[in-house]
Amino acid sequence: MKFLFDDESFSFETLRAAGFACYRGAELGEVVATAGRITDGDEASWQREWSATADRVRTIGENCLAKGRTVSAREAFLRASNYYRTAEFYLRDDPAHDPRARELYHLSRDTFAQAMNLLDTPVRPVAIPYQDTTLPGYLYLVDDSGAPRPTVLFNSGFDSTLEESYVALAAGALDRGYNVLAFDGPGQGAVIREQGLPFRPDWEAVITPVVDYAVRLPEVDEDRIALYGYSLGGLLVARAAAFEHRIAALILNDGLFDYHGTNVRAMPEFVARWIEDGRDEEALAVAGLLTSFNTTVRWALRNGVWTFGASSSADYIRKTKPYTLAGIAQQIACPTLVLDAENDIFFRGEAARVYEALTCPKELVVGTEAEGAGEHCHMGAMLLTHQRVFDWLDENFSIPS
């Protein structure tokens, strides 16, 4: 689906930003107007124009809040948070130290917190114990009754942040009576930016502390905990569910079997061989040519070096080798929903591999181009996707319609 840009990456990220309009995380006119001021494929104009739109919308929120107009303020802050996240997206040379990247990230986080403070349903920032530190999170509650409810643990992906969790899942969950516990793990959001902790392949070491925390909350029905993986999170949570058996249902959006394979397939075969053989100087020279004209590859390699704690693009590719479900998928016991996207530009063919490898009760749902749900993680089709996810979850949790 080409959306406002010819550049594949710009098109997808714009669709991603616009797709959250259904939960008031964007305004279609604002997205179209902003895109119209951006030079296709030019990352500097992308950052400049999304920042300008985010600043303008944040000012609306501040003015409305000062006048006591909380609904308008909440809506503006939520949109601004999404736009700041989008503005920061391509700043990947050194995000942890780049002043502009840090500023935009904090603005996205701060405006989101302002929006959550004005939400009609309770939201609690949480700190989940993890090793010798904590993972930041949000507990989204249907109400303040304290009653235990079915709860979804939201695990984001390669580049998403905690602040995306509301529009990506929690808003739809709350409408259906589900609580949501979302968090940033190693390699994600505040954990990579402020603690410097990169991704790790043994993701059960992350999810088990999250489940430990969740089952101690009175609002969580410990017999009805679902685990939801978003993008790369689809592989991470599947790996974790093979070892953490307190999970009652698993949702993979989208299914991913072999992350290393998806990276290798994005480059010429001979470059992949050079990386495997440690011929980094030659491999990086060719990779440099690829990244000079391919926004998707350029961004992915830079983001991977940062979030995986790699020394170079070649080192990043090698570090992805343990991220696979080979020999592991068969250990998943809980009912699993595998989502696939017909035109997935990142994980094409991977969901079917996951589905075939699973031996637990399972279902595969493919989002198609014809229904507008064919893009990675079904961007632009949040309502349809949530209908499918929660209808399946209702059936597995025996929740009446």
From TrEMBL:
Instruction: List, alphabetically, the InterPro entries matched.
Output: AB_hydrolase_fold, FrsA-like, FrsA_esterase
Task: Give the transmembrane region(s).
Answer: none
Q: Which UniProt keywords apply?
A: Hydrolase
Q: Gene3D superfamilies of this UniProt entry?
A: acylaminoacyl peptidase, alpha/beta hydrolase
Which GO molecular function annotations are given, in alphabetical order? hydrolase activity
Q: Which domain of life is it from?
A: Bacteria
User: Which family is this protein grouped under?
Assistant: Belongs to the AB hydrolase superfamily.
Q: Extract the PANTHER family matched here.
A: CONIDIAL PIGMENT BIOSYNTHESIS PROTEIN AYG1 (AFU_ORTHOLOGUE AFUA_2G17550), DIENELACTONE HYDROLASE DOMAIN-CONTAINING PROTEIN-RELATED
Name of this protein: Alpha-beta hydrolase superfamily lysophospholipase
Q: Give the organism, scientific name.
A: Actinocrispum wychmicini
